[in-house]
Amino acid sequence: MRINPTTSGPVVSTLEEKNLGRIAQIIG
């Protein structure tokens, strides 16, 4: 589920980081 950073911008990057952190917590 990769989103093009050129079209989405830095806002999606932060959301992606939060989602990754959440997933890491669930898996870990």
From TrEMBL:
Keyword Plastid: yes
Protein keywords: Chloroplast, Plastid
Domain of life: Eukaryota
Name of the protein in question: ATP synthase beta subunit
Organism, as annotated: Stenomeris borneensis
